[in-house]
Amino acid sequence: MALQYLILVARTTLLDQDMVEDAAARLGMQVQRNGPNVASLTSGGRVPINVDNGHVIIVGDLFDRFGSGPSLDKLETSLGASVLADPMGTLLTRFWGAYLAIWKDGDVITVMRDPSGLLPCCYTVHERYVAFASDPRTLLGLTRARPSIDWGGIPRLLYADDLAQARTGLMDVSDLLAGSVARIDANGCKQAICWSPWQFASREEEATSQTHVDRLGCAVEQCTRGWSSSFSKVLLAASGGLDSSIVASCLDPKIDRECITMATADPRGDETAYARELCTSLSLRLSCYNYHLEDANVLRSAVAHLPRPGARAPMIAYDAAIKRHVEHMGTDLFLTGAGGDNVFYLTHSVRPVVDRFLAEGMSSGLFHTIRDIAKITETGLLEVVAQALRFSRRRGGIYEWRYDGSLLHADCLAEMKRNCPDHPWLAAPNDALPGKAGHIAMITRAQQYLHGYDRRLPFTSVAPLLSQPVVEAALRIPTWIACQGGIDRSAARRAFETRIPANILRRRTKGGPDAFAIQILRSNMELVRDRLLAGRLAGNGIVDVVAVEAALMPERLARDANYVRLLLLLDTEAWIDGWLSADVCAPKRIGVALN
Question: Which of 17-21, 328-332, 396-400 is predicted with the least confidence, judged by mean pLDDT?
Fold first, then answer.
């Protein structure tokens, strides 16, 4: 069962204990008082780790970086003393997991979200206290406030194109970014970065290619086994691709585990044969399901539980099948390979060539990397060199985030360009290598793939490849090693080459539900036109109605991936409707058959 939590931190005076008790009763949570200024409320019998009578509180799943086994429910005396002496430093270097840590330092109370972002955290600032929660329903349920849409935040999120933002789509609700702290005192609440991917992207470290491969393999196995051993019944989404196959190969054979795969009617979206081959080789049970159009309800948002929009209708159909299977089988942990492309650095860019030249100059290794990129991109050697020269002259080491202004109103675009969305992880040092800047941007983008399932559902969803040790091990790998041998995600493939079927190990492309996505639009065209041309986005001047109408022309739906943007706008309409009609005092738990 996914953890729900609510953390209350007093800004000036003591916490109102009647308010705390009332909130716990209404939300169905248990209370742990951590001194007069902090109270933690948690669901499902989950008790925070309490260090030295509440001087440090850890909510969520915490694992020992140098140990094995399930998440910790307490700390040994020596580890507790280290955490007490230096909470931030010790937690970031000695542990990993999906957690929130709270401690007091003088007049300031600090709340830290771990670097993986696997435990969601949003917050709101009140006059007397700051409240942090696993989800906005819990947050708003504290005061029974009606949700209000931030009409300035919506276009910002659409323009940012999967760049995680502290500003959400709900008024007075912010996200605490992964690897960040919120510091609370009488003056308010300020957010700052406490972990940076650039710490692990240094040019200084000398390690062989095989050492990098071994470190990555060990980190993936440790994190996958740690997560799976903390639950009783594990379900893995086996897509037929490399990343989910790697996760499958790391599951402990002693646990109750099975896989599930989804297929479309279009053969290009049917990966069943690869999923079956994987499961046969690893002795895993496999359940196969199809996408169904009746499950893709365009009036519902796939991320209705989040404080921001950002999903597409095919996710609803996918989730419906997952939820039905979980209800039937009693699964309590759902694993995916999400984020693998990002963490393992799937690239068709010339950045690794530029990186190697900047690191080594003219060397035999540089020629090998030119050859590798030529093989990956199916391009001539001279063309790769020319592209690398053009790239280095144009950009240097700076990564330019690709914002998406398509179908947005001109006034919104003008405002976004005056004040572009940003993220602290994109702030590269002066000597940054451009390939590593691109790698970090990909990892930053992966943050938006998390938390696809409502935490009121009776299972926890985890993407183990985004666990902190895996990300840090991957960041240490030079970009040219990630494409060594002329194949993408080379280090990850080498780390698991003896454990995954050769057919999957050699794969360079994978199918997806694209045809199903277009079918959703075509089969609901009248409703889609009405919602996008006369809906809340149009009414608030966020979308360019003329451009949207042109994109909805039948002959243009599949051109230039227009359908992806249209489905995002459609889900955003549903997300807005959902929050404007939301009952924040709804039942504490929901069943799994939501669609």
Answer: 396-400
Interval 195-210 mean pLDDT:
86
Q: Please, what is the angle between helix 364-377 and helix 351-360, to 10°?
A: 180
pLDDT digits (tens, 9 = 90+) for 384-408: 999 999 888 776 557 889 999 999 9
pTM value is 0.94
Task: Please determine, for residue 157, whether its predicted confidence score (pLDDT) is greater than 60.
Answer: yes
Q: How far apart are CA 303 and CA 312, in angstroms?
A: 9
Average pLDDT, the chain: 92
Rounded Cα gap, residues 124 and 131, in angstroms: 6
> Are 169 and 303 contacting, i.e. CB atoms less than 8 angstroms apart?
no
**In this structure, which amino acid lies at residue 91?**
L
Burial class (CB in 10 A: 0-12, 13-18, 19+), 341: buried
What gap in Å lies between CA 483 and CA 502, rounded to an integer? 18
Structure token pair of residue 316: 């609803």
Residue 96, pLDDT above cutoff 50:
yes
- CB-based contact 467:116 (threshold 8 Å): yes
* Edge-to-edge strands, sheet with 174-175: 30-33, 38-42, 5-10, 129-133, 122-125, 174-175
Torsion angles phi and psi, residue 403, rounded to 5? -75, 160
CA distances from 221 to 68, 173, 212, 307, 543 (A): 10, 36, 14, 32, 45
Is residue 594 over pLDDT 70? Answer: no
Q: What is the bridge-based pairing of β-strands 285-290 and 256-263?
A: parallel
Q: How many CA atoms lie within 13 A of 387 on its CB side?
A: 16
Q: What H or E segment, with its residue span, contains residue 101?
A: strand 95-105
